[in-house]
């Protein structure tokens, strides 16, 4: 049966119309979180890239604004970042600080490789209108064909801007006093990490390990493009290490590949710039799709969604420093309590769940760590999405094999698992469900699985199962989630 919904998430961002891929230029300025994004305003598949624009004050409720950047004589507007130029290092501003976007100009060349060069645009009115810098492009490379997705941040210790940018299958680290003149500091990535595809959309930022500022580590995110040889499609890895303004030195743990998300649909994500120091969070959002099938997903009128906003932290678990993701706390304001049980038997929980019909919600469940539990969500006569913990394998999983429409790609179906590291004697699983997605945060954000699903409209059931008929949930909460009304 064909769904009559358009699969638009109710608390996830999607453009009102047409195509979206990567988040770009995420920056906080004057009370607004900006999201720019790779956008094709004239089609529902990838095409001439523009920067679309939306803002939010609460990380849940979005206001879409007119297209911010359109292709010009240097080509399409590919991915990049935005910063607040607080000290007017660029000289673009008069009395008040404003926004500078640093992005890739992608120029097609007949019968040859396209050219990718870095350019600037600036805005004096909170991103509502932009001027392209007349000196564009500001950075090119003599040999890299893939040279794109600059992420820029201010480095206080060296008092310079740092740019991390994807260069084929490595990243390059440049520095600049004014965002216009860039000097290559170092290159990182040869012989380390995953090289299953071209490297894209890198990010680099410091985090205090377990909140202890004396134990700061740098985190590098690197997205890896889809290669037909790998049925996982596009995905994101991360490294931890040290950075001195020039060189990134990876920790030992980074020598094995560390996946950022164990689902299929969290790509090209980066962190927000200029979150005020008194807030101090490192906030992240990714594109909730996969290049393997992004152009074929069964939505109508628009295509593409972002993940929920997430907070990133570094935490020591079993002597290993891990990158942990948690839903941004603003999501709590989107809740309406539906069910709240403590020390409830699985029979009692099952009876309650059987009465519910829900599409957009959060479910939190906690139970003894040696017990396996499986939820069936968005279930109906033909569909169900299975999410559970297999205690014998010590893993959390999403199985979307029967989740709904899947015929648009042969590798869409499947089960995706992530290893768990115990936090205490309990399993803790937090799941966000929306019209076409599930996001699972297990063990308090240690293992994350983000997956798209396309169930029938009527598939709203929830049920739970365990081999242990005496299983007790220490707690089980369900909240319906809706956009926050001011
Ligand atoms: C990542 C990416 C980027 C590029 C953009 C083009 O998804 O391939 O490397 O800048 O998308 O839309």
Automatic annotation (TrEMBL):
GO terms for cellular component: cytoplasm. One of its GO terms (molecular function) is sucrose alpha-glucosidase activity. InterPro entries: ConA-like_dom_sf (IPR013320), Glyco_hydro_32 (IPR001362), Glyco_hydro_32_AS (IPR018053), Glyco_hydro_32_C (IPR013189), Glyco_hydro_32_N (IPR013148), Glyco_hydro_beta-prop_sf (IPR023296). PROSITE patterns: GLYCOSYL_HYDROL_F32 (PS00609). GO terms for biological process: sucrose catabolic process. SUPFAM superfamilies: Arabinanase/levansucrase/invertase, Concanavalin A-like lectins/glucanases. Residues 330-480 form the Glycosyl hydrolase family 32 C-terminal domain. CDD domains: GH32_Inu-like. Gene3D superfamilies: Exo-inulinase, domain 1, Glycosyl hydrolase domain, family 43. Keywords: Glycosidase, Hydrolase. Residues 12-327 form the Glycosyl hydrolase family 32 N-terminal domain. Belongs to the glycosyl hydrolase 32 family. This is Glycoside hydrolase.
